[in-house]
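__Protein archive entry__

___
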Amino acid sequence: MTLIPVEIFRHVFEYFSDDKRSLLSCLLVNKRWCGIAVSILWRDPFSYIKGTSTSLITTYLSCLDVNEREILVKSGIDLKLLFEKKPTFEYAEFLRKLTYVDFYESSLAWLQSITEEKINNNDSKIFIITKELCKSFMNKCPKILNLNINLEPLHFQLPDNFTDYVAIPCFPNSENSLSQLQVFVCCGNYDKKKIFMALSKYSKNISTLYIDYYLDDNITSAPTSLALLIKSQRSLQTFRIDTYYRSLSKIIPALESQHKTLKEIKFRGIDFEEGVTFAPLVPCKNLESLIFMTCDNVKNEATKPLESAHFPKLKKLVFHVEQSRPPLALPSLIVNNCNTLQEISLGLPPVDSQDDPRIIETIIEFCKNLTTFEAHLQIHQLESLLISCNHLEKLIARGREPLRVDEFLPHIGKIIPKSLRTLVIHAIWSFTPNTLKEFLDYCIAPLETIGFPDCYAINDDHLFNFSEYAKEIGSLKTLNIKSASRISRKAFETAKSVIENIEHCGSYCDEDEEPKSVIENNEHCDNYCDEDEEPKSDIENNEHCDNYCDENEEPKSDIENMEHYGNYYDEDEPKHCDDEEEE
């Protein structure tokens, strides 16, 4: 009988590559199926588990060559129990996504599992184990497609020579294993210059580049090397840079070299220095997303070239700045691209009426195809927006002052477009339960998410109306009432039986106490729990807390909640598939 080619099987297996249970079942069919399933499971093994995994580290260490083992042994790391049996597969060669922190944290857990002494999270042995594993991957993996060296999750002081441990692109044979690299993430407080230089020589196919210079030293920031890495790419599509405040004048011009392919540019937490200009972005005609998130010093001189810029494919514009007023070019940028813009998010400081650039009015007049919008809005602007933009699917409106909206809210219900699915009002609004009922009765949109996160006046009657709406319409999945402290636990639990996800601060009024009126709710809200009970801390009140365990029941440990990586012959390590006769 003619055998089906392996590539056909591989193509079929890709359809359920996210289904760990099915892949594990395939391991037991025959040798061919086993090999294909193993190659999928081990290309990004941490995607199938939660948290750390000592068994993965055990398996990878078992695959080390003699020379690699000797380095660990000389460093005082006991490996004598690992090599009793040679693994069936060379698991390291299947890896396609290498995330440094995953291997570091699992190496820490593994090292702790073989010693009785407490291991510090910055112990040099952990760095050595992780480095040797990464060197092994560079030697054995034919292609790493995703390399993540984001060290921000490591919340401790890094050693002085730390770059030597994480400079993976400088390890032997990296020029081969990283030659097809597609995604590169490089974040943290360490010298990145030689990493950028190495990749610029042999990684020419990066499509996503994410750099964070947080706390990086002036000497080690390597803006020139980053610019060289950008220019060396054949088709960079996504560029993101975070928390940076110098030498952008060297980096932004390099983006023009990718003008044919760039689709997304994101600046986050950037303090733009003098001399920066966004003129190099103007030729990027395939740009679909332009984001300025919590940036400062986005000045008129820098943005002036954007005043006449036309991006034929621009769909998303995010502009959150912390300066005194938005740049003059912003309204023109919106008008020039109004036909394609579908998502706009603005975070602008308040301005005097005489200095108002009328950006909201510009959006209302010209951007008829919006599906997502977020901004500070006045009442009349919110009304005009809902009438004008009748394709809206998600609206997040923010207000600066407390308002009584009993007359306005039902009217909003009447003009909400049918397409709306998410409505979140970040403002201190107060309204009666009957007003809310009118609003929900008038609303013809099947809302999936409703949010009044700053409305502390919401009580049990309001919650009842939300529940009735959810039962009647059947679409409401998420309700955000984080600040509501006038509801009882009983009403909350009743609503939870109808609404899948309720975001709430966890503070309830006394169940034996009559809920206070809406007018009383407008007063300050400290005194809602039993006076004999210790008030909750700020942290407790800010967290969502909808799981209440029995006080007599021992809480489950983290280990009990962890999911293990597969059903293997030995439960303590990944399955090594012995050769089987092919059926």
Q: What stands out?
A: Residues 49-132 form one domain. Residues 515-583 have pLDDT under 50 and may be disordered. The CA atoms of residues 110 and 116 lie 12 Å apart.
